[in-house]
Amino acid sequence: MNFASYGELLRVAPIRRLLLVGMIARFPHSAAGVLLTLHVVMTMDMGYAKAGAVAAVVTVGIAFGAPWRGRRVDNVGLRRALIPSVISEAVIWSIAPHASYEWLLVLALIGGVFTLPVFSVVRQSLGVMATGEQRRTAFALDSIATELVFMGGPALGAILATSLSSVVGLTLVGISTSLAGLLLIWFNPPTRSENPQKAATEVQEREAANAAVVAAAPAHLAEASSELQPLAVLSRRARLRSGFSWFTLSVAVVFAVAVGAGLLLSSSDVGIVALVESSGNPQEVGIVFAAWCAASVVGGLIYGGMRRRISPMLLLLAMAVLTLPMALATDTISLALLSIPAGLLCAPVLSSASERVADLVSEERRGEAMGWYGSALTSGTALGAPLAGAAIDIVGPWAGFAFAGVSASLLVLVTLTVRKFSRRGERLSAV
């Protein structure tokens, strides 16, 4: 363990400022999930399956929008890329709470597409400002900061929905997020290295390594890869043709982890709201989120101080298994206590996966890769929320946690099996 690395990193003013701005920008949307769920269930008097469908539509929009937003950041810079989000956040979430359920779905989709891309921007910028082993600590700090936000955001959302109005709460989310976007535009954290020559050298080294593998490969593989050239001589057309060359089997495995993590977290999120609301005290939902997120903070601190890497796939499997006991909870306090073991692994899963993407993808493609990583994460969320909501409506609140743990565990096992057979096939083709 090397906990001194946290102090060293926080003494770097731009990193410290980025983490703080990221926390502020994330806070409104940390309340949005609970607000949307309670708006559909309580204000609109509909079930958890329909509430989960709204959450799913938002995340589908984010999944479609994230790669495009990441590419815009790469191509036109952060400030110009954020302008559509600043405008749409204020407009969409001021209108959506007053709409019918059908129009709420449409507006939720549009809102998702133009969501302020805080996650990918912060992670991309940290990947530039922190290098080597510092990245693990930086990503862990970002995950910890996110958990601190989620310790307060959902509680505030529940209080706004139950004590004031979910309509007012969602409107405040839109306006606050828009203001957070303006703050990010003002701060304008770096998304590209200040030393382009160094970044280009890193990419050239990766291309040279690819060329060496192709040269040593059997004839049919070399023929299939004959268009690979060093970065210095690639034409614009060749660059477009090889636009997804960064998407390897290893990257695909990390994206599978992101899908599983999104599914696990969104299903647990709906399950927590459903169980606490069924007890007749929906305002107590903040107690469970606080315990869950506090555990994640502790887990993130421990993981960020570790010197050896742990596979994100193994971390996700452990978290899925530890989510299952949450189905045994009978009230708010027991659920809060049972959420702690799974919560301990939340930040490590996300930190480990982000670090892996940063290691596997070159800097010039990292914005797009982080966008696709975010899409994988939100796609899992889109799958988990409505399915868990349906299970809750049919069986009961405990079914949300059972669905979450079993589904994420199965995804890990299937992914590990596919990777094993893929690698075996690669070895046989190389003989």
Automatic annotation (TrEMBL):
Signal peptide: none annotated. Residues 231-431 form the Major facilitator superfamily (MFS) profile domain. PROSITE patterns: MFS. Gene3D superfamilies: MFS general substrate transporter like domains. The chain crosses the membrane at residues 18-42, 48-68, 80-97, 103-126, 138-161, 167-187, 244-265, 285-303, 310-327, 398-418. GO terms for cellular component: plasma membrane. Keywords: Membrane, Transmembrane, Transmembrane helix. Pfam families: MFS_1. PANTHER family: MAJOR FACILITATOR SUPERFAMILY (MFS) PROFILE DOMAIN-CONTAINING PROTEIN, PTHR23542. This is MFS transporter.
